[in-house]
Amino acid sequence: MSSIPELTKEMVHHLGDMFRNELKLARTEAVDSARKMSGSLALIGVGVAFTASAITLIGFAAVELLPVEVPRWAAFAMAGVASGVAAMLFMQAGKSKIAPDSLTFPKTREQVGRDIQTIKEHLPS
User: Fold this and answer.
1) Which one has a higher pLDDT value, 61 or 21?
2) 16-38 burial, b if ≥16 CB within 10 A, otherwise e?
3) d(Cα 60, Cα 68) in Å, to the nearest integer?
4) Is the dihedral angle over the CA atoms 45, 47, 53, 55 positive or is it negative?
C-alpha cells in the first residue's frame, strides 16, 4: 500500500499531465479554427475588392444621373457622403453580429469538464 505523500505526489503528477494535455488540445483547436478562418478571410478579401470597385462605378453612375446644373465636385461629394453613410451602417450591423462564442474551444471545454468530474469522483469525501 502507498503512503499519503506518495499518493499526493502521484496525484500532482497526473494533474500536471492532464493540464498539459488540455493545453495541447486547446492549441490544436485554436490552430484548426485559425486554419478554417484563413481560407474564408481570403475569399472575403477578394469579395471586398470587387465590392469596392462596384461601389465606385455605381457612384460614378449616380454622379452622371444628377442634372448638369449641379457642379461635378458637389455631385461627387454627395455620392461620397452617401457611400460613407452606407459603409458606416453596414460596418455597425456587422460589428453587432460578431459572435464571441464562435471562437470557443468546445472539445477542450468538454474534456476539462470530464477531468474535473473524474477528480471529484476520486477525491476522498
Assistant:
1) 61
2) eebeeebeebbeebeeeeeeeee
3) 14
4) negative
Please give the model's pTM, rounded to 2 decimal places.
0.44
Rounded to a whole number, what is the distance in angstroms from the first to the last CA of the chain?
Answer: 20
Contact 80, 59 (CB under 8 A): yes
Q: Sketch the domain layout of the chain as residue ranges.
A: 30-122
76 within 8 A of 64, measured Cβ to Cβ:
no
- Name the residue with cell 483547436: 29
Q: How far apart are CA 111 and CA 123, in angstroms?
A: 18
| Residue 59 near residue 72 (C-beta atoms within 8 A) | no
The DSSP line for 26-74 is HHHHHHHHHHHHHHHHHHHHHHHHHHHHHHHHHHHHHHHHS-TTS-HHH
Distances (CA, A) of 108 to 21, 30, 44, 89: 10, 10, 29, 37
Half-sphere exposure of 81 (CA within 13 A, CB side): 6
When pLDDT is averaged across residues 33-52 and rounded to a whole number, the result is: 83
